[in-house]
Amino acid sequence: MERSVQPHSYNPSLRSPQLKHLRLVCSYNVSAEGLSAAVKKFPLLEELHLYYIAITKETIETIGSSCRGLKSFKLNNQICRHPYIEYDEEAIAIAQNMPELHHLQLLGNKMTNEGLEAILNGCPQLESLAN
Q1: Domain of life of the organism in this record (predicted)?
Q2: What CATH number should be reported for the domain whose range is 2-7+14-130?
Q3: CB 3.0-4.6 Å disulfide test: which of 2, 36, 107, 110 passes with 21?
Q4: pTM of the full predicted structure?
């Protein structure tokens, strides 16, 4: 079951513990805490694609610990970050909490070589990586 949720929309399938694919686009009203609470209800989630949503490393940790079978994670937070500040928090959180990833896309992320190395070491199943 794949669902694409737009801002301000109500979708009853979001209560489904059988949900495997979730894509949130421009969901500015979804907080990091709200997303953390939601993913705990989707233990079978295999694909999570987040576009233009600001999340924290703690949210990534929650996603990883709640959705152990996550195979695809896309995070596009280009408009949510300062373009000149390098940081590895998200990359390290992904490496430590999403070992089953096959596909990873990070847009708007300014990770360093340390973050890249953490992902490559922490996600041995990785088939594709886009940054």
Answers
A1: Eukaryota
A2: 3.80.10.10
A3: 2
A4: 0.82
Residue 56, number of CB atoms within 10 A of its CB: 16
Q: With helix as H, strand as E and coil as C, how does the chain read?
A: CEEEECCCCCCHHHHCCCCCEEEEECCCCCCHHHHHHHHCCCCCCCEEEEECCCCCHHHHHHHHHHCCCCCEEEEECHHHCCCCCCCCHHHHHHHHHCCCCCEEEEECCCCCHHHHHHHHHHCCCCCEEEC
Give the model confidence (pLDDT) of 4-13 as tens digits.
Answer: 444 334 444 4
Taking alpha carbons only, the member of 96, 99, 47 closest to residue 74 is: 47
CB atoms closer than 10 angstroms to residue 40? 13
Question: What Å distances lie between residue 118 and 4, 62, 124, CA to CA?
Answer: 30, 18, 11
Alpha carbon 88 to its chain centroid, in Å, reads 15
Distances in Å between the Cα of 108 and the Cα atoms of 39, 52, 84, 120 are 22, 9, 10, 19
pLDDT of residue 54: 79
Name residue, tokens 């300062």.
82
